[in-house]
Structure formats: C-alpha cells, structure tokens
Design goal:
Layout: H1 5-15, E1 20-25, E2 32-38, H2 47-57, E3 68-74
Parallel strand pairs: 2-3
Antiparallel strand pairs: 1-2
Length: 77
C-alpha cells in the first residue's frame, strides 16, 4: 500500500521541526512523489547531507513502502 502525502509530510516535520514540506503526486498513483523540503536544520549542510536527513526522517520506508520520492531541499532564505 502506497504512503499518503500527509503521512510523508508528517514524518518529515516530526524529524525536522519547523520544516515546510510541499508534496506533489508525479504520476497520479499516490506512489511516485516529489517533495520540496525547506528546513532550518539544512543550513550549512551539503545537498547530500540534506537528503540523508530526509531519508532518515522516513525511518527506512524509502524504497519499500515509499516507492519513489524526488527530493528538492533547501535552507530557508
């Protein structure tokens, strides 16, 4: 069963308090998502480190229950 956008968003915000998450369904199947995550915790971190923080927030669901996630990450401006 695919993960719902609100479930993905909740997991990210729980792990990264203050994060803003914008979700977009890429294929209309609730299984292929794009997420834009803006979080203060990303300040001074490389893009790879930022993405790793999001994957850790998803608690091992990436590649399993969560089939595909296109990530865009940034620190607030």
């Amino acid at each position: 069963m695919p993960m719902a956008a609100d479930e993905i968003e909740a997991m990210i915000v729980e792990a990264l308090p203050g994060a803003e998450v914008e979700m977009r369904d890429l294929a209309g199947d609730n299984d292929h998502w794009a997420a834009k995550v803006t979080a203060p915790q990303f300040a001074g971190k490389s893009r790879v480190q930022q993405h790793k923080m999001v994957y850790e927030a998803l608690d091992g669901k990436m590649g399993g229950v969560l089939h595909a996630l296109q990530l865009t990450t940034q620190a607030p401006k």
